[in-house]
Specification:
By secondary structure, this protein is an alpha/beta fold. The protein is built from nine helices and 21 strands. Helix 6 (186-195) packs across helix 7. It is globular. Residues 1-17 form the signal peptide.
């Protein structure tokens, strides 16, 4: 039994309630960074300390507030001013603060930071966005660009960031400005210190290597404040691989365990420079698989990671919790054993699952083609096609399936649903090769 199984069994269930709606105000919030006498950094909102208990994404904001979150992070304004103001209004009503993303062009997408006209045009576009939303009381901080260092070779990007920060400080003195970084190393931080010294704080994005953050901060001599603006499961780029290079994804249960370990061990442990975090992703997206990063399934069910975040934010588990699952097997083997099947033959797949509340579980099985995406930095991907596979349930959590007729790379997905809006999941990458029966 996993540690999370034990924790769930011992913790008494506690219901969560939607917080009292905030009263909209016309005056902008005043957000400041302050350093205590002992050197510890604090984020102050209208003079009161504010520790970020946040998530990336703008969906299901009511549930985020109900689960104990206090902030959302966006990657850019909405398609229209009206849409963005409506988002800010909703956040204000729910008592949430918004880290407002600003789209800053990336070198990997073809932007040339040696083109002064393009840089100037970008600055003016951003000026208009800042002017449009600077006075909204839900605004917490500006996030100027996302992972601009990823696959970037031109240090002039940081000169452009410095120009953006100075402009924002001029037109909006009430809100700090950060940029977010993929990874963290001494050379990168030295470049940022030299070229973008006006940044108020940094956003740091680490996944499986989040526990290395204290050492990275020390090696880089970064003594200023930071927020962990993305963290969560072990990334697909740092996970075990099958013999043919398919990344092995952790189960929903293991991901929840890792959230608790990583939050307690690194994020909550640093109250000197760390100002909180935004877990990734409060919603759902396709990135190598449809389940890798989202805390919710594509069909909307909450997963064990949602329960884990409520526990971390409030100290209390929800009154009804998500199912828990073990490692699935296909033909008696787990994903790390590089499962190979023959076309058209029948095999058995199994998964062990329990529900902490005793709710009856139902199981959903499907096969998708393996993703061939090579994108980085969360760039858009298409969901791979479904594959027509015949499943026969022989027992709860056990099916017989017929392997696809065409040789190739595939992935078997299974979900355990409790009928209460919660589910856990797992998957097994496999290949089909050889002769049919």
């Amino acid at each position: 039994m996993s540690l999370l199984f034990v924790a769930l069994a011992l913790c008494a269930p506690v219901a969560f309630a939607v917080p009292t709606a905030a009263t909209p105000e016309s005056a902008p919030s005043v957000v400041r960074l302050a350093q205590d006498d002992d050197g510890a950094w604090r984020l102050l909102v209208d003079g009161a300390p504010f520790y970020v208990k946040g998530a990336g994404g703008t969906s299901r904001m009511e549930e985020l507030a109900a689960r104990g979150g206090n902030s959302i992070r966006t990657w850019g304004p909405g398609a229209t001013v009206e849409e963005t103001r409506a988002l800010l209004d909703t956040a204000q009503r729910l008592g949430l603060r918004v880290a407002m993303g600003i789209e800053v062009a990336r070198e990997r997408h073809g932007f040339d930071y040696d083109d002064p006209a393009a840089v100037a045009a970008q600055l003016e576009r951003i000026r208009g966005e800042v002017m449009a939303y600077r006075d909204h009381p839900a605004l917490l901080v500006w996030v100027a660009g996302n992972e601009l260092n990823l696959e970037s070779t031109n240090p002039a990007v940081w000169d452009a960031v410095e120009g953006i920060v100075r402009m924002i400080h001029e037109v909006d003195p009430n809100h700090p400005v950060m940029t977010t970084l993929a990874g963290f190393d001494p050379a990168l931080i030295a470049e940022i210190k030299a070229r973008a010294p006006s940044l108020d704080l940094l956003g740091i994005q680490l996944y499986g290597d989040l526990d290395t953050l204290p050492a990275k901060l020390a090696a880089s001599d970064w003594t200023g404040p930071y927020v962990v603006t993305e963290w969560g499961p072990t990334g697909h780029w740092e996970s075990p691989l099958t013999q043919w290079g398919a990344a092995v994804e952790d189960t929903a249960t293991r991901k929840a365990e890792l959230l608790v370990e990583r939050y307690r061990g690194t994020i909550a442990a640093d109250r000197r420079q760390g100002l909180g975090s935004y877990v990734f992703l409060w919603g759902q997206k396709q990135e190598r698989t449809p389940t890798w990063y989202g805390l919710f399934l594509p069909t909307g069910e909450a997963t064990p990671r949602v329960d884990a975040m409520q526990y971390l934010w409030t100290g209390e588990w929800p009154s009804n919790r998500s199912p828990q699952v073990g490692l699935p097997t296909l033909d008696g083997r787990t994903a790390t054993e590089s499962v190979t099947l023959h076309p058209g033959r029948t095999y058995t797949a199994r998964i062990e699952a329990i529900d902490p509340d005793g709710d009856p579980l139902t199981f959903r099985w499907r096969v998708l083609e393996e993703s061939t995406a090579t994108s980085v930095g969360g760039d858009p991907e298409e969901v791979p096609p479904d594959v027509a596979v015949r499943f026969t349930e022989t027992a709860p959590g056990t099916v017989e399936l017929t392997a696809p007729a065409q040789p190739g790379h595939y992935r078997l997905f299974v979900e355990a649903h409790d009928g209460q809006g919660h589910a856990a999941y797992a998957n097994v990458p496999f290949r089909v090769q050889g002769d049919s029966p």
